[in-house]
């Protein structure tokens, strides 16, 4: 004789209500896996973080992360003035900056290296001047070299923003204080890409993350209609494009692609907050795999370079 378990409808309703009540109460509570936060991220890394936040929120449905994609100067200002407790930029704070925040606001800044990134130089498909040394790039940015090789066409250098990490990097590299007339900014990395697609004389400067993910249809669309410039440290050396293996060599072995940089997460929220939970995710296995898939170099995964010889 079969026996069936009969649960009164009132009990099921009560259990379901209790479950919903618990979820609703947790959704407003700030923990490593729940709550709502606003973070400021350098716009160079927008494709990476759009994927990362989508994945994190899928894993933790009670968490909401609102991302503001801004230039590096804005991100740092938002962090210092208290608009946000978490930012992603291309450098760590100095000890003096950390001590200043601790003294003024009694705030401890915890910094974590997330990845190794690179700048990419892009040109119009009809432009055949696609090999460049770092020295020539410095001369172009400083205005000393203003013409494309093999023609009398003027080089127009276009950046995303005068306060962006991309521009700050090459400004420091070229040691310039003022912009020459042929260097100007638009509003975003996406606008740089579109400008280069439409202008034969343009030399675009973007974060490689915008064109590096081979599996992202948006990335592939961005890459359609541009050429990527190959760079050498000096005349006579080998030229490299910003591919993952060459970014790795450029950072870890002082060879390969030269325009490499670090990606940092800075946080001043507590260790049990959603801010800390997201940083733990990004620096953990899943986050580092997302970074690797985006063809950047994860900071917390051991890479092994393999040379493949074909006959």
TrEMBL record:
Signal sequence segment: 1-20
Pfam families documented for this protein: PBP_like_2
Protein keywords: Signal
Record carries keyword Cell cycle: no
Chain ranges of the PBP domain: 35-285
Gene3D superfamilies hit by this protein: Periplasmic binding protein-like II
UniProt keyword Signal present: yes
Protein name: Substrate-binding domain-containing protein
Species assigned in the record: Taishania pollutisoli
